[in-house]
Amino acid sequence: MSDVILPGATLGVMGGGQLGRMFVHAAQAMGYSTAVLDADPTSPAGLVSHHLIQTGYTDPAGLAELAQVSAAITTEFENVPAQALDKLAETRPVSPAGSAVAICQDRAREKAHFVACGVACAPHTLIETPEQLAAVGEDLLPGILKTARMGYDGKGQIRVKTREELAAAWAELQRVGCVLEKMLPLAYEVSVIVARGRDDQVVHFPLQENLHRDGILAVTTVPSPHVTEAVSQQAYAWAHKIASSMNYVGVLCVEFFVLQDGRIVANEMAPRPHNSGHHTIDACDVSQFELQVRCMTGLPLVEPVLHSPCFMLNLLGDLWFPNGADQGTAAQQEPDWAAVLKLSGTHLHLYGKTEARKGRKMGHLTVTGDTAEAARQVALKAAAILGIASF
Length: 391
Ligand code: ATP
Ligand code: MG
Description:
Radius of gyration: 21 Å
Order of helices and strands: EHEEHEHHHEHEEHEEEEEHEEHHEHEEH
Structural class: alpha+beta
Bound molecules: adenosine-5'-triphosphate, magnesium ion
Number of helices: 12
Helix content: 25-40%
Strand content: 25-35%
């Protein structure tokens, strides 16, 4: 235990988004100070942190200052350049390591890692050159063309049915490196969040089921109403394997597709806490953000327990524009939080973003209940009040 970083120390995080904000909240609750590096002066995490280092991710002075004030450093954003994490690691413990983040940042490397771990994933091929485009087999169509780097919330993806559409899609994506994936018949989607400590211990949260709308996570349900014991055991085993084989330290989320024939395949992974784990704050005895703190400080990990069935609803900026009102018009209005909070079992989280924009993640609402059905009924009422489509 000699190298455990105890409360009182300062913990640093690369990135100031909502994941960083919830990390800061967890770290502060445990008695740590925090430092956030983000170029935005009003980032969600920067607004609540002891220190804000307002620079870009690769700014040498900013990185030096973050390392100077922090006893250990983590990341909340997977597209932080891996070299920036490597630079920080010259003087401070950084988790996850730049080498692991580099795999997760690149869909081609990510898929290669799944394959190397013996984890099933969608049939796919890399498209970086016109020759590779020409060589694509018919068996991958219809498919989804995804940029290898920088995609999120369904951005940087185009669905294609024919070779002609594929060529046009690659042109539309500026002919950057892409992965073409076969379109699979999904039954439903799940994710598994694991935490791995410096001592190789791996723990996981109970698997969650995720409903996406327009490529963005809309609703997370725990326990998953559809999953079988065999599928969840496979998902846990694969998530552990994926983390261990990268020598990963920190919180890692692996997204899976469950296919109509019952098979499970890995979709992608995120080297940080994940939107599908936000319910862990209110429905589990330890949150994904607290486990991020424990991993980076060398504190013990415990197997998380779900104490309440729950639903998590993402609160997108669209809710501020009821009846299709346009951005920036007087018709923009604050959702009726009071009506939602009147319902017992509702837990409101807003990220402190001043401007609502359509598709922007403004917050989330977790609904816990004594039973899954009770939580569902309250979640449906809250959704109706807020203008979120039923599920
Ligand atoms: P995230 O916000 O999770 O990072 P992303 O933009 O990286 O999202 P993916 O997770 O790759 O995107 O895909 C978004 C959604 O599109 C998936 O959750 C799934 O619903 C659908 N999808 C992606 N790939 C496939 C596929 N091969 N077959 C069928 N559906 C797919
Ligand atoms: Mg995804």
